[in-house]
Amino acid sequence: MIQILDKITANGIAAGEVIERPASVVKELIENSLDAGASIINCDIEQGGIKRILISDNGCGMTPEDAVLAFERHATSKLSKISDLEHLMTMGFRGEALASIAAVSRVNLRTRQIGQEQGFEVIAEGGKLVKSHKTGCPEGTQIEIRDLFYNVPARYKFLKRDQTEQGYIADLVTRLALARSDVSFRLTSNQNTLLHTPGNNNLLSAIYVLYGKETTEAMVEVNYFLEPVKLSGYITTPQVTRGNRSRQIAFVNGRSIASKIISAAITEASKTWFMKGKFPSLVINLEIPLNLVDVNVHPQKTEVRFWDEQIVFRAVYHGIREALETGSTAIKGEITSSHYQSVTPLTADFKETPLNYDFSQRTSQSKETSEETMSELGKRKYDANERISPAEQAQAFMMHQQTDQTVSQASSPMGSQIFSQTESQIINNSVLQHESKELQATDVSQMKHSEFVSEAQPRQSELAYLKDARLIGQVFQTYLLLEYENRFIIIDQHAAHERIIYEQLHYQYLANKNQPFKKQILLQNETLELTAHEMALAEENLEELDRLGFEIDLFGDNTIIIRTVPDTGNKFSSPVTAVKLLIDSLLDQSFFQEDKYDELLYTIACKAAVKAHDNLSYNEMKKLVADLTELVNPYHCPHGRPLIIELSKTDLEKLFKRIV
Fold first, then answer.
1. pLDDT digits (tens, 9 = 90+) for 232-242
2. How far is residue 535's CA from residue 601's CA, in Å, rounded to a whole number?
3. I need a labelling partner for 339 at 20 to 30 A (CA). Which of 43, 50, 278, 555 fits?
4. What per-residue confidence (pLDDT) applies to 641?
């Protein structure tokens, strides 16, 4: 028999959608405080919030009538009709929170409006109003929740340990504090302060308090506008990374949300900047006209619906790429006592032997090289291009970022063709929008290419000074050593050349998306055995493979012959690996996704670049350094590894105890 549930039972069931755990209570109450205009919010919890939660603020307070009415379901001051949702500026709007909380706990609410002599107190238990009367209390609102889920054992038994529930609350308050840096938040647990933000309307200050100095000093500003989306915030450079995405916080109009669209854009924009399995920390806010965002799609308001997911994706993608390109710097090396071992002092038994090296025995070729090197490696004065981040924004810290010749065509590891084009010809387009598997439902693949590729923007690299640096030479046949003013620079030759080739191929592809790659004929054809399914796919896509520079012939029932590869100006050491990657992408139907093309370019660049233990001539080293300074990202190889490290003169002087 169908029957209408009584009010208490209905409220208790409905509370399950809104109140999952103590953190849900804290979220709803703090959002009410924010809507009341509070600038100071204190949250005190006991036993992970299960035993007690006390939220107090200095907001506008409530009248006695509103304080009682607030415990009724769907009683709210945030809106009065459905059309108000299109212009909603408050965090809450359904009028369910307090009624749901009161249905599963014991509640004591005290409130006093600004300027009033007396406050008002309301006591409720299990959804029933127990008492209400005038009382003395500070201006604002204090609401105390005790014995959460005391009357709902089915929900209570699913709560986790006190420490775990406390962690959920701390994470929630952290997000709210980052969303509202103009509000001072304090979270205490069992009389211990867990966090306390200054509320000085400075996001970097809040990040410093919540995430620490190291993360804050690695932050670069994100500031981007794509009509009608304004993106702002901060992201860490690859110098400081994490093994998970827990510190990737996104807000939409100040509301913390979880969005696959935004997450996918962040992932795509970070590619080639961060190593696999490493992620940046970031705090970003998207300001979008209220009528273009639907916040009424989730019981806890943690999801939103956008009017155009493609535009949101583009805004986040390009905003983060721009921040990383303009804000990244070379890795600053730091030497400590754990990094070296002192030379053992001479003992009494040791007999010094004079060095009898005959310098006259050097070959004439060596002399010529030496004279050439000394004449060309004289120090040149250069005004360092320093970029200083706004130190005033973070009260307790400063963030200071410091920020040719023809290649020999002899049989050397580095071919001349790869450097035959100037970088201004290579890098003539901005970053192309990548598709993400998570975005297939949004039909990102239908976006126009012109919407993602802008005109070339001349960019002065912060590594331009390397052109004037003194090239010391090559060590371990792997690293290039340079000196400039008070800096000692180390460059990984393979990672640097890999990045140069990758950007050449990447931007050539963007600039000539419908044109075939130049081909390089293999001296010896390569063969690859395939399954019947793979052979069918290869035969069906021969034209597309050829456009990418791979000329392939079918040979028999299960073999293909690889005759050409994309021309990188270098020996292509593993054509089979590249073709296997293409075949795999045909199998999983992702061949025409932009990120798969990038994976192919990674492979081409890696296989074509000079390797560790390859000897480079002086001219080759100079050319590699010069080309490096012209890149969009001259700091990391396509796989995210750092390719350049700087040590200061001070670091070395500390090593030798000249400075203690």
1. 999 999 888 88
2. 23
3. 278
4. 86
Which residues make Cβ contacts (< 8 Å) with residue 343, sequence separation at least 6?
none
Sorted by sequence, the CB contacts under 8 Å of residue 583 that are 6+ apart come out as 530, 534, 537, 538
- Residue 270: alpha-carbon gap to chain centroid: 6
Extended beta strands in 85-228, E state: 106-112, 119-125, 128-135, 140-146, 184-189, 192-196, 219-226
Question: What is the Cα–Cα distance from 37 to 57, expressed in whole angstroms?
Answer: 9
Asked, as a colleague might, if the bond just before 228 is cis with ω within 30 of 0, I would say yes
CATH architecture label of 203-331: 2-Layer Sandwich (3.30)
Residues 6+ apart with CB under 8 A from 558: 529, 530, 531, 532, 535
Of 36-50, 144-158, 316-330, 344-358, the range with the lowest mean pLDDT is 344-358
* Token pair for 372: 């050439």
- 221-224, long-range: CB < 8 A, 24+ apart: 221/323, 221/327, 221/389, 222/282, 222/284, 222/319, 222/320, 222/322, 222/323, 223/319, 223/323, 224/315, 224/318, 224/319, 224/322, 224/323
DSSP alpha helix (H) spans, 92-212: 97-103, 153-156, 162-179, 203-211
Q: Judge whether residue 356 has pLDDT over 60.
A: no
- pLDDT tens sequence across 500-544: 988 888 877 777 666 788 888 998 999 998 877 788 888 888 988
Tokens 């690695």 locate to 218
Q: What confidence score (pLDDT) does residue 332 get?
A: 64
Q: Report residue 90's pLDDT band, with 50, 70 and 90 as the boundaries.
A: low
Nearest-angstrom CA–CA distance, 251 and 311: 16
Rounded to the nearest 5°, which phi and psi values hold at 641? -75, 145
Q: What does DSSP assign to residue 21? A: S
Cα dihedral: 203, 266, 442, 225 (round 10): 50
- Counting every residue written for the chain, the total comes to 660
Sheet containing 552-555, strands listed edge to edge, beginning at the edge strand earlier in sequence: 519-529, 559-566, 552-555
Please determine, for residue 307, whether its predicted confidence score (pLDDT) is greater than 80: yes
List the chain domain ranges: 7-196, 203-331, 404-434+465-649
Best CATH choice for the domain 404-434+465-649 from the list 3.90.190.20, 3.30.1540.20, 3.60.10.10, 3.40.50.2000 = 3.30.1540.20
Asked whether residue 107 carries a pLDDT value surpassing 90, the answer given is yes
Q: Which residue has the higher pLDDT, 358 or 322?
A: 322
Q: What distance in Å separates the CA atoms of residue 503 and residue 630, rounded to the nearest whole number? A: 10
Q: 7-196 adopts what CATH topology? A: Heat Shock Protein 90 (3.30.565)
Which band of pLDDT confidence, cut at 50, 70 and 90, is reported for residue 593?
Answer: low
Element (H, E) at 621: helix 618-628
Among residues of the chain, what percentage have pLDDT more than 70? 70
d(CA 415, CA 409) in angstroms, rounded, equals 7
What confidence category does residue 596 fall into, taking pLDDT thresholds of 50, 70 and 90?
Answer: low
- Token reading at 55: 């939220």
Per the prediction, the chain carries an average pLDDT of 76
User: What pTM, to 2 d.p., does this model score?
Assistant: 0.61
For the cut 90, the answer to whether the pLDDT of residue 124 exceeds it is: yes
Pairing label, strands 52-57, 255-256: unpaired
The secondary structure element, H or E, covering residue 649 is: helix 649-655
For 41, the enclosing helix (H) or strand (E) is strand 40-46
